[in-house]
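Chapter review: from sequence to fold.
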Amino acid sequence: QVQLVESGGGLVQPGGSLTLSCAASGSITAVAAMAWYRQDPGKQRELVATINMSGGTEYADSAKGRFTISLNNAANTGNLLMTSLKPEDTAVYYCNGKIYGSQLEWHDLWGQGTQVTVSS
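The token string follows.
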């Protein structure tokens, strides 16, 4: 069974940094793409950043210059480095993975979500 497991959330002061990780496990051929979303209670889930297996990245305007998404193809793990964090970055962060399984079947999966709270 292919699944995504997130880690790295927590409480951080404004201006601080945090790294979120998303590990894909199971019978995997490759992670084709990974993305991070975030969601506040009562709001729609919003896209934060994406990366494909070639290393191409895109960022939401709110993340540009502060967040860095990366993908380790060998380890099937993606990271989101968040710096200069602001209280408005507080949300539950979810990773989404587009994954080729061992038989090249397509998986579109979500992690369980991890809470990020930016507060003094």
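Two observations follow directly from the output. The two ends are 40 Å apart (CA to CA). The mean pLDDT is 96.
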